[in-house]
């Protein structure tokens, strides 16, 4: 079993390998890294060779310039192995293709302006043979010559920049910058907006409650009887009984059944005829069906 000093030595070498891996992943030389950190190159090389064990602030500084998470140094995953490696011949082919594309764009823009190669040569003070080679993509176009040509053709060089033509480190890993943090904060500040818009929609189901409560008034007719009884009696005193109104003999029969006066008034009021029919229909329904109706009413009211 390894002793504690041996374990610490192995840990130091593993940490040094991860430091080297992070630098290779960032495609920086030791000199470039030390220039950003203000370190002596010897100090970084000592860290990478495990001659010196780095401190936590040093690991945080390395993570910042290499654009890697700090916990990379506490793991065991290699980042540089996952970095796509572009072969030299592939890069050369891409550069040649890009030069031909720029030449074709120059020729297309010149023809749109109805200019000949001689006209473009005279306007830019560039030899005619050079203009021809540029348009055919035979030779690379210096930026200064490209600016002269695009100026005559009234085109901005920035419009011809193809940032995706050649993969860069920024395309593979995007380091955390202040602008990205501000963008995230702006997005977070905009997140509550849809919540505020959704809040007025919540009272919508509450508006349905008074409508759904209407059937309850049908089950409790006592309140409606009290409200409707007084005008019914007064009208009965002034007007003769209608055909739908019960006769005096029927009223006396109800009174002899020892029914409450409120119930007698409810039954004898023609306005409540529909409630009586409903009660009659409910009395003839099976118990199971009545139970289902009661459950449905509870779901509506609650």
TrEMBL record:
Identify the residues that the record assigns to the HTH cro/C1-type domain, covering every copy: 19-73, 106-160
UniProt GO MF annotations = DNA binding
* Gene3D superfamilies referenced in this protein's UniProt entry, alphabetically: lambda repressor-like DNA-binding domains
Enumerate the InterPro entries for this protein: Cro/C1-type_HTH, Lambda_DNA-bd_dom_sf
Task: Tell me what this protein is called.
Answer: HTH cro/C1-type domain-containing protein
Chain segments carrying region Disordered: 177-245
Q: Which organism is it from?
A: Leptolinea tardivitalis
Composition bias, kind Basic and acidic residues: at what positions?
A: 191-209, 227-240
């Amino acid at each position: 079993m390894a002793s504690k000093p041996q374990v610490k030595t192995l840990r130091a070498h593993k940490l040094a390998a991860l430091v080297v891996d992070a630098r290779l992943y960032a495609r920086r030389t030791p000199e470039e890294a030390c220039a950003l950190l203000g370190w002596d190159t010897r100090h970084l090389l000592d860290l990478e060779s495990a001659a010196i064990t780095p401190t936590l602030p040093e690991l945080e500084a390395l993570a910042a310039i290499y654009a890697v998470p700090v916990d990379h140094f506490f793991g065991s995953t290699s980042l540089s192995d996952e970095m796509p490696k572009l072969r030299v011949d592939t890069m050369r082919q891409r550069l040649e293709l890009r030069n031909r594309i720029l030449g074709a764009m120059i020729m297309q823009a010149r023809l749109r302006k109805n200019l000949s190669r001689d006209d473009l040569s005279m306007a830019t003070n560039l030899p005619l043979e050079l203009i021809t080679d540029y348009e055919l993509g035979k030779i690379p176009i210096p930026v200064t010559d490209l600016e002269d040509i695009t100026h005559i053709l009234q085109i901005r060089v920035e419009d011809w920049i193809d940032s995706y033509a050649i993969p860069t480190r920024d395309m593979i890993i995007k380091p955390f910058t202040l602008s990205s943090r501000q963008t995230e904060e702006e997005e977070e500040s905009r997140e509550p907006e849809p919540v505020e818009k959704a809040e007025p929609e919540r009272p919508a189901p509450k508006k349905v409650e008074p409508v759904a409560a209407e059937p309850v008034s049908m089950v409790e007719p006592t309140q409606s009887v009290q409200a409707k009884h007084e005008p019914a009696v007064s009208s009965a005193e002034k007007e003769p009984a209608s055909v739908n109104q019960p006769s005096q003999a029927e009223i006396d029969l109800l009174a002899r059944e020892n029914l409450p006066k409120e119930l007698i008034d409810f039954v004898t009021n023609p306005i409540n005829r529909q409630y009586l029919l409903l009660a009659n229909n409910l009395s003839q329904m099976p118990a199971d069906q009545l139970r289902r109706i009661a459950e449905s009413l509870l779901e509506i009211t609650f």
